[in-house]
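Example record

One chain of 344 residues, shown exactly as stored in the release files.
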Amino acid sequence: MEKGKVFKIHSDFYYVDSNTVIFECKLKEVLKKQKQNVLVGDNVYFEKINQTNNQGVIYEVVDRKNELTRPKVANINQAMLVVALKEPNLSHMQINRFLCFFEYNKIKPLICFNKADLCEKNEIDKNINIYKNIGYETVVTSIQTGEGFCELKNKLINKTTVLSGVSGVGKSSIVNKLNSQLILKTNKVSEKNERGTHTTRHLQMYNLNFENSHQSFIIDTPGFSYLSFDFIMPNELDSLFVEFNQYKKKCKFNNCTHTNEQCCNIINNVGDNIEVSRYESYLSFLNEAKKYKEKVTYSGNKVELNYKTNQQKTYVKISDKKRIDSRRLQKQKIKNKIEEENEI
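Predicted structure tokens for this chain:
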């Protein structure tokens, strides 16, 4: 039995890297019946079935240390959010949306501000300080000038990093720059709507093959522009804004929503200790969370499922009609029946 890491999934085939050798694997039938979910980044045990063509069958998926639902990846050390300073224009609302998503999933974020050659230094500093000042790790890069790539390599070495961000910010170009042997497809930003076009069509992990390090992986992902807050309740949202924690303790009300309450310490610090753009993002996300709460509260009836999950595996549940009574219950029924007959 061999051990490897899933670096690409295409249809029903799982491409597994084992000691730099690539194996095309399928999932064992029993795992298919259990609806075993396999993600890029999963560590798996597989058995070779064809030495000549490097084919195999996956027998087991190792328990994950973490996972993301969007993009669907597992066992990552950090998420690198790539944003463009220009072309397309920088959106703090979009940055905050991704950061909250990473905070919710307890994934360490790294913010990469790309296309530095298109901006003045004072404008760059103004944007990155918003996030550096509240503890986020940042790096400024430029594909054209090579700025920041030595620093970026140091932040990626011996780690598995997933790329995230909207289309057109330069995710694939960054991977090409980090490893010159890779030639990922790239495209220009549309001049008509100033948005990127989808060039990466599927998730794929790449070994960056840094000098003296063969365990530095990066996962290139298709760009996506919207993450909805349809997974969190309104009273939990403020915990995803890291700078709120030191101020919300002094709010007058324990259930303060930081919108229009009197003596709200968050509102009192907006503009001074809390960036206006961060607070505006909070208000926007709060409305989404309220809609989710309303949907959960008033929609649908609970339906009992015919399966159950345990440790990433799915098992069929036996219906009540097909279940056999335990011996204890059978004896109790017989005893009750005898007592009823004696009473008659």
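Notes: The radius of gyration is 26 Å.
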